[in-house]
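Quick look at the format.
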Amino acid sequence: MVSDPLEDLRWLDAAEGRCPLGGIFSVSFFHGLGPAEVLRRFGAAPSGEPDGGHGPHGRPPTLGTLCERAGDGGGFVGAMRTGEWTAAVELCGWEATLPDVAERLSADCEMVAVTRHDYAEHCFVYAVGGSVVTCFDSHVPGYRQGSAPDGLNAVMRETGLDPGSEEMCLDDPVATSFALAAAITGVVFTRDVLERPLLTGAVRQPLV
């Protein structure tokens, strides 16, 4: 029986009412940076929340509690360590995949970011050392921009994406982008991240 490479990621493509992160969110991965430094790059100190960055009863908040606190307004970012990478989650936000912001966030490091935006465009960005290497609309991965738009072609093929296709990819575009991110980072963004402790802060102008 052939395993489904997207099995652990399809929850990120679930309908807005069934996806815990909602219909608009971004997840970015930073190699070699800790959660506090990632928050600093977003302009948010770990103590930036009114409760000092802690959840109920003094426990660190989780992504699940961040979802509850952010509501429909967003404006928060949460960061958690995942091996050699730190994952940062923006609810109701897409800062990390804006080209100029991605350039600043990725200064002196490697960054992969995915945005789901049900009312605009889903987006994938790979940036290194302050330069966007490859980026594309997750629905149409055949149309890419960046300093080396074909730089991930081999990895894309390994994850089932055809870098030469001009057709729209309508099936699981967000999950597929997260599969590509996992191929680069080694981090599979499974649903259990909702229960992991993380540092949080309010999103402001990036400081890098």
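Next, a different chain entirely:
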Amino acid sequence: MKILYIVPKINNEGGVARVLSVKANYLIKKLGYEVHILTQNKGNFPLFYSFSKKIFFHDMILKGSYFQFINEYRKALMNKIKAISPDVILICDNGMKAYMIPFILKTKIPIIFESHGSIYIEEKQKHKFQFSTKLKLVFKDYSANKFTKFIALSNESLKEWNVTNGVIIPNPLWFNTNQFSNLKSKRVIVVSRNSYEKGLDRMLKVWQKVIQKNPEWMLDIYVKPNDNREIQTLVNSLNIRGNVMFHEPVKNINDKYIESSILVMTSRTEGFGMVLIEAMACGLPVLAYDCPVGPRSIITNNENGFLIEDGNIDLFVEKLNLLIENENLRIEMGNKAKENSNRYNLDTIMLQWKNLFEDLIKD
């Protein structure tokens, strides 16, 4: 079977690139598929994650004004699809152009849209929610129904959309480990990119309050160096430099989870939250705001972590301090977190994809 993934870029440290590398490699190695990945504007070099050498990489250069960009996008897609002749096309793109594909691309090939973010991703920046934003949301919903299948990462994610073609397939856990954190280090870990929806500014405001009570604890933030200037400025203004360390992203982030005792997430929106299941697999209890929509599908509140009312900074501080000060509670929640991560077994998730592909080809 020949599969074509269309994605803006995979030469970064983001969750979409990580998951795509895992799935593409599995499809080739375990199932014998032929996999093509189409990016834009040199978005496939240099690669951060390990992609199989058997993958066929393609790229399209898109420039110009909005209408020129879309026209070039349409022509490039048509040319690439004609040349590759895939059995199934998968769209991994949260940008508005991706939602135009059912209208600009005429083909009988099944087209699957993978939703890796909330419908509201970047639509409420700086608390603005204008009429044009509402039109975008209506268009997203309308377009989502035009794809052959619309893939949501959880039931909670699917509920955001008014679709009749929805299928739920979670992201898989990409590693197996027999090594777990002993939960004794005085370190809390954040793994993220610095963007509005990821809410690192909210985390730093929480941390300022936490270290007033627990000044010996350290917050480790793994974020791309070019992305952390604004939050470094916030660190300075909050006077918490002595309790925050910035680190460059690493491929084997599981090694860093094992050196930590708690993972925290303060996102404004999440499609899934890969870092949650990664940290859980390493035995870490987790805390996250109950934002739309990923964390609530992964965290069982008061069992394997804490799901905090979105934006309730005082409650976040209270629960984080509770975990910091109670090692037995960390161990109890960490053990349940390990059990919960088993739901995302790679073989189980990829069997769902295999069955979906085969059903589409039959139809």
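The two ends are 15 Å apart (CA to CA).

See the schema section for token definitions.
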